[in-house]
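Page 42, continued from yesterday. The earlier attempt failed because a stray header line got pasted into the input along with the sequence. Redoing it now with the clean sequence only.
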Amino acid sequence: MSHTHTRRTVLATGALLGAGTLLGAAAPAGAEGKVLAERRRDERLVELTIDSPALGGRSTVALLTPRGWDRRKPGDRWPTLYLLAGGDGDHTTWTNLFKVQELPELRDVLVVMPGMPLFGFWTDWWNHGEEGTPRVRTYFLREVMPLVERDYGAGPNRAVAGESQGGFGALGMAARVPGLFGAVAAFGAPVHPVRHPEMWLSGAEYVGVDGYAVFGDPWTRWQTWLDWDPYHHAAGLRRTPVHLASGDGRPGPLDGDEPDPHIPGTEKWVALADEGVVSVTEAVCGEETRMLADRLRSLGAPVTTHFYPGGHSGTYGYRELRRALPVLTAALRR
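This time it went through. Structure tokens are written below.
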């Protein structure tokens, strides 16, 4: 959901080939993006402006660079952590709000933070049967990842994390392309959206986006919803360490004084919410996250969890990213 800030040799090659198979005709030849501009924002932060055929326009990818990166030679590679933005598409959340640059554990890691269109859901949109742009998953798998691996030192040891819709994208891609990432983490994410379609369709409408263009009508295009649903593809995560975190929608220590705004169309879930819930969005994310965690445990998957009182404001990402670091960095050290 959108929120307001007031809100991973052979294995590598095989995984990316798997990604191509997954994307199929949705990723035409020559879809790799082109860098239009490269700007240094500070000592470590570099921002790329990309012409993205998959998105049908420009996008921004921020790189938090590791030690020695400025003196890199052809063939130099660093372990790479991909951080996926939430529904607002704002890649700067990771540096401005979650302060990833402060983490000493990532000083020798290349951190890649791509932007995303508003409410893009890290998904290739169905577009009422017309397909076409935005192809957000194609953008990430066929444009961003090949670009940073070819030109900017990203290596085959990869991990991925995301908040909200970014967590959905991280889990979905890791599940659909086993081996692509060594570990994955998701914070406050819609990880089983087919279970609460009205929530996500209403959220899209609330921010001025046609939610039916993303996945289609869940009652007639349910297979499209299942195709992208991380819970439905949980078997693909059986050998991937996963860290899941979510609030329960009740007021928590990092929330502000105001509850989530009312989103028309979510009245059913508001009425069914437990007493004390002020963020029905996070309550639903929490329910879906618990379901995925249980499913992964039943499959024998290596999953860790953290559930806590809190809402969907985005303020918990700072703390939860730090909790997830042992899982993510262990994969990067392999």
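Notes: The chain has one domain: 10-332.
Reminder to self: strip header lines before submitting.
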